[in-house]
Amino acid sequence: MHLERLTSILEIVGQKNVATVAEVCSHTELPKPTVYRLVQDLVSVGLLSSVERGHFALGSRLNRITRNEDSDPALLEIISPTLARAAQAHGAAFFVSRLRGRSVEIIHVETPDNGVSYLHPGVGKRPLHACSCSKVIAAFSPELLTKNDLTGHLKKYTENTITSLEALEQELGAIRSRGYAECIEELERGICSVATTLMKSGHGKTLSIGVTASTRVLTAKKREDMGQELQDMAREISDTLGWYETSASLRVG
């Protein structure tokens, strides 16, 4: 019964585009206090949003769930060609990661096919404190540190792994300043990576692209150059997707 009531409210708001509590009451025949409480519950989890006092529309979270263009295959159709060109040009593996719930996951890797030797980062979850793809997302989504109680849970993978929350917060601040993250043998000896988010705000801050290679290949100068190039690639991809920093959402039309 509770789920049916919530679903009915979402259907009514979706059909009307914007609806008031009174309008929902008239269509559901539910008491006003009940509708108001249910609407507030839906707002609190992002399924509805308050567009002005007493007026509600479908929320950004629900829109993301129902948008096919936000699925992994749809995003990779746009992102993969750019990463594939970079992999060929640099002879290294390029990856794309996204935030899923409270963790970051590498969802796709493009590799060079010209016979050069490269390091494959693999796909799957990455720790928030020890990988460039996740650190850069955490830097622009600092609420991840509060949602995930990391105190005492910063696992040490190598002697370079950040294991204190204070040091991690300093690292994330530095990442925000330069626009990209580095992982220098923090997860595995001999391997480093560089990554940046597609955008610094909005939905684009929950996706990152990056490159991984040996420390011999990704020297300090090369990492700096790749950080700038990745940010250029991110802007190109965001423009193609129709994502813009000013609106932090999809541009329509």
Instruction: Estimate the mean pLDDT confidence.
Output: 89
Number of strands: 11
Structural class: alpha+beta
Fraction of residues in helix: 40-55%
Domain count: the total is 2
- Strands of the widest sheet, in order across it, are 6-5-4-9-8-7
What do we call the CATH topology of the largest domain? Beta-Lactamase
Backbone shape: elongated
Largest sheet: 6 strands, antiparallel
The share of residues in extended strands comes to 15-25%
Head-to-tail CA distance between termini: 39 Å
The SSE order reads HEHHEEHHEEEHHHEEEHEE
Under the CATH scheme, the architecture of the largest domain is: 2-Layer Sandwich
Radius of gyration: 21 Å
The quaternary organization reads as: single chain
Write structural notes for this entry.
The protein is of the alpha+beta class. It folds into two domains: 2-65, Orthogonal Bundle (Arc Repressor Mutant, subunit A), CATH 1.10.10; 67-250, 2-Layer Sandwich (Beta-Lactamase), CATH 3.30.450. The protein contains nine helices and eleven strands. The chain has helices spanning 2-16, 21-28, 32-44, 60-66, 72-90, 132-140, 143-147, 165-178, 220-241; strands at residues 19-20, 48-52, 55-58, 93-100, 103-110, 124-126, 181-184, 191-197, 207-214, 243-244, 249-250. The chain has a six-stranded antiparallel β-sheet with strand order 6-5-4-9-8-7, with helices on both faces. It has a three-stranded antiparallel β-sheet with strand order 1-3-2. Strands 10-11 form a two-stranded antiparallel sheet. The chain is elongated, with a radius of gyration of 21 Å. The model is unreliable at 246-253 (pLDDT under 50).
